[in-house]
Amino acid sequence: MEEAKTRTVISSGNREIDDKMGGGVPFGSLTLIEGDSHSGKSVLSQQMMWGSLSEGVRLSFFTTENTVKSLVKQMQSLDIDVLDYLLLGKMRLYPMEIAQSKEDVFSLLLQAIRAEGQRGAEMIFVDALTPCITVAPADATLRFFEQCKRLCSDGGAGCPFPCRGPGFAGADHVVVRCPSAVTHGGSRRAFGQNDGSV
């Protein structure tokens, strides 16, 4: 754990990706990964998870897109096997059912992120935020990013978030306003259209 606190960058585990991201993901940063549907945001997140786990980082992964079984299978199809990390408790995985939630999704997610940080998670991934953004008011989305930014700047876990880019579910105004909240204390990654380039 001490080594993790002295890191400045976390490798994705893929040199080509790291080179395009300036060496990797800044440790302890809030990172928004945005792009069109099927542009590779989730695959990049999974590659970043693999790099983090390979470097001994404990992480938690909240997903609106997979079950535990489907995520493990999907990652194995990319030659990334996280099953041992799950079994050893180095990675915790939490499927989320946003459509079933009657409460403030972002408040619940923020509580869970804080709890995971207290349990020792050094990186926290959320894939994807798009379903949360589409059911939440714009001000709740902005508050969520601001509070996550504050957690990161206070020495909390780093948080990469894949998010589908502009043009989805009537939330264009949020996507335009969110990056300014995110980039102040962290970094922002954007992808080309369906080619996965950074």
Name the descriptors:
single chain; 198 residues; alpha/beta; Rossmann fold; 3-stranded parallel sheet; 44% helix
The CATH topology, please? Answer: Rossmann fold
Secondary-structure element order, N to C: HEHEEHEHHEHEHHEHE
Cα-atom Rg, whole angstroms?
15 Å
Average pLDDT metric: 77
Major beta sheet, specifics? 3 strands, parallel
What strand line-up does the widest sheet have?
7-3-8
Please report the number of helical segments: 9
Oligomer: single chain
Q: Could you characterize what this model shows?
A:
This protein is globular. The protein has a single domain (38-167, 174-189), classed as Rossmann fold (3-Layer(aba) Sandwich), CATH 3.40.50.300. Residues 164-198 have low confidence and may be disordered. The strands form three sheets. Strands 7-3-8 form a three-stranded parallel sheet, with helices on both faces. The protein has a three-stranded parallel sheet with strand order 5-4-6, with helices on both faces. With 198 residues, it is of the alpha/beta class. The longest helix has 16 residues, at 138-153. The relative contact order is 0.22. The protein has nine helices and eight strands.
